[in-house]
C-alpha cells in the first residue's frame, strides 16, 4: 500500500481539484489517495459554503478514497499552523508516501530552498522579519525582503513572484514541516489547473463570490459527475448575514485579549476605538498594513470559538494531533479503513476503530471547540447536520449511494460515545 495525501478545503470542490487528483494518480504510484480537509470553517476564518461531509462526498465521487477532518482550531489558523497540522496528520498515516499540493509556480526546487532556509536560519529569519514588520511592511512583503537577504543568489523578482502566490506560501510551510519532522513523505507539486476553455484559473473563491452575488454559473467549473450533487448541497449554505452578526457581536463583547490566538494589542485597540457595527467595517478597518482582512476574520472567529494561544501551542510542542475525524470513505476500501482506524499517534474518531484517542484535557478542549463550531454552523445554516462518517458505495452505473454505516467492515464490540465534548471537558 502506498498512500498519497492531499491537504485541502474543497470549498467547493471544482475542476481544479479534479485535475489535482488526476495528476496525483499520474505522478505517483499510489494505491490510495487520502485527503485531510478542513471542517465547517476554513483557513480564511469563514464558514464553508457547503457542509463538511457533503464536500467530502464530492471528493470521494471524483476519485478520493478517504477524507479526514483537521480539527477546527488548526483548520482556521494562519498558513503556518494550518500547514503544520496537516503535515503532522499526514505523517502519522500508515504507508503515507507522498504529499501532493497545487502551486502557482511549479518550481519545487526553489520552494524547498526557501523552506529549508527558514528552518536552517530561523533565528536570522525571525530577527529580520520583526525589523521589517516594525517598519510597517505587510507580512508578505516583509517575508520577501528577509528571504531575499538570506538567499542573495536568487533574483529578487523571482522570490517576489513566488511569495505572491497563496498556494506557494502553503507549499513552503508544508515543506518546512516535512523537514522539521525528518519525514519520509515525498513532496509532489502540481501547477494549478487552467481550463482550456477559459483564460482564468478555476477558483473556489470566484465560485463563492459569484454565489453570494446571486450570479452563480458553475457548469464550466464543477465536474459533471458532481454538478447535480453540488446544486443540491448548495441549498444548505450558511446564511452569511446571520453568521457575520453573530461573529461581530461575540468579537466586540467576548474577545479575550490576553489569550485569543493571533490577536494583537493593535487589533484589540482597533476594536475598542472603532467599534465596527458591520462585518465589512470589522475587516476593512485594519490597524496596520501588515494585518490582512483574513487575519482579522480569523481573530474574530477564534474569539467566538474560544481558540487560545495555548490551544495552538500543542502542535509546536508535539509532532502529532490528539485526533482526527473520518468524514467520508469508499465503502469498498476495507484495507484502507483498517489502516486508518489503527493509527496510534493521531487516532481517527469513528465507531469501530481499534485505537481510541487518549481522553486528556487537551483532547476534550479540542473536541469542545469542534462542538462549538458545529453548533455555530448549524445556526448559520438554520438546519441540523448528522455527525457521522459517510460510506460511499458505487453501483454498476457508478452513481454514489451514501450509507451511514460501514459496508462489510469488521466491527469492534465497543459502546459508541454518547457524551458531548462539553460534558467530557
Count the E strands: 9
Shape: globular
Residue fraction in strands: 5-15%
Name the CATH class of the largest domain: Alpha Beta
CATH topology of the largest domain: Rossmann fold
The total tally of domains equals 3
Low-confidence stretches: 407-419
Largest sheet, if any? 9 strands, mixed
Helix/strand class: alpha/beta
Determine the fraction of residues in helical runs and give it as a percent range. 40-55%
CATH architecture label name of the largest domain:
3-Layer(aba) Sandwich
Instruction: Report the total helices.
Output: 19
**Gap between N and C termini, in Å?**
38 Å
CATH superfamily of the largest domain: HUPs
Radius of gyration: 21 Å
How do the SSEs run, as a string of H and E? EHEHEHHEHHHHHEHHHHHHHEHEHEEH
Q: Taking all residues together, what is the mean pLDDT? A: 87
Amino acid at each position: 500500500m502506498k498512500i498519497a495525501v492531499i491537504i485541502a478545503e474543497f470549498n467547493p470542490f471544482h475542476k481544479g481539484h479534479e485535475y489535482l487528483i488526476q495528476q496525483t494518480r499520474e505522478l505517483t504510484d499510489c494505491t490510495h489517495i487520502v485527503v485531510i480537509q478542513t471542517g465547517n470553517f476554513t483557513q480564511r476564518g469563514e464558514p464553508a459554503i457547503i457542509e463538511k461531509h457533503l464536500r467530502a462526498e464530492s471528493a470521494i465521487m471524483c476519485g478520493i478514497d478517504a477524507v479526514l477532518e483537521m480539527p477546527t482550531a488548526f483548520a482556521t489558523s494562519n498558513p503556518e499552523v494550518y500547514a503544520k497540522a496537516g503535515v503532522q496528520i499526514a505523517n502519522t498515516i500508515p504507508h503515507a508516501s507522498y504529499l501532493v499540493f497545487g502551486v502557482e509556480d511549479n518550481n519545487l526546487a526553489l520552494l524547498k530552498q526557501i523552506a529549508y532556509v527558514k528552518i536552517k536560519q530561523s533565528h536570522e529569519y525571525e530577527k529580520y522579519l520583526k525589523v521589517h514588520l516594525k517598519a510597517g511592511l505587510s507580512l508578505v512583503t516583509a517575508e520577501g525582503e528577509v528571504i531575499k537577504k538570506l538567499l542573495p543568489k536568487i533574483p529578487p523578482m523571482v522570490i517576489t513572484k513566488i511569495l505572491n502566490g497563496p498556494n506557494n506560501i502553503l507549499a513552503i510551510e508544508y515543506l518546512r514541516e516535512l523537514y522539521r519532522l525528518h519525514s519520509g513523505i515525498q513532496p509532489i507539486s502540481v501547477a494549478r489547473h487552467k481550463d482550456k476553455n477559459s483564460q482564468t484559473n478555476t477558483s473556489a473563491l470566484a465560485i463563492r463570490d459569484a454565489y453570494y452575488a446571486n450570479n452563480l454559473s458553475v457548469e464550466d467549473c464543477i465536474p459533471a459527475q458532481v454538478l447535480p450533487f453540488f446544486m443540491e448541497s448548495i441549498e444548505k449554505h450558511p446564511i452569511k448575514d446571520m453568521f457575520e452578526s453573530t461573529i461581530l457581536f461575540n468579537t466586540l463583547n467576548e474577545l479575550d485579549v490576553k489569550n485569543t490566538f493571533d490577536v494583537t494589542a493593535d487589533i484589540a485597540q482597533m476594536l475598542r476605538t472603532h467599534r465596527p457595527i458591520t462585518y465589512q467595517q470589522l475587516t476593512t478597518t485594519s490597524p496596520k498594513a501588515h494585518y490582512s482582512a483574513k487575519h482579522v476574520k480569523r481573530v474574530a472567529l477564534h474569539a467566538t470559538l474560544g481558540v487560545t494561544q495555548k490551544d495552538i501551542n500543542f502542535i509546536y510542542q508535539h509532532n502529532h494531533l490528539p485526533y482526527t475525524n473520518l468524514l467520508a470513505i469508499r465503502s469498498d476500501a476495507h484495507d484502507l479503513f483498517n489502516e486508518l482506524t489503527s493509527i496510534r499517534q493521531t487516532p481517527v474518531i469513528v465507531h469501530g476503530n481499534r485505537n481510541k484517542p487518549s481522553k486528556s484535557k487537551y483532547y476534550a478542549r479540542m473536541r469542545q471547540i469542534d462542538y462549538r463550531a458545529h453548533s455555530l454552523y448549524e445556526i448559520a445554516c438554520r438546519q441540523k447536520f448528522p455527525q457521522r462518517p459517510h460510506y460511499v458505495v458505487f453501483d454498476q452505473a457508478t452513481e454514489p449511494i451514501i450509507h451511514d454505516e460501514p459496508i462489510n467492515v469488521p466491527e469492534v464490540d465497543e459502546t459508541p460515545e454518547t457524551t458531548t465534548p462539553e460534558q467530557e471537558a
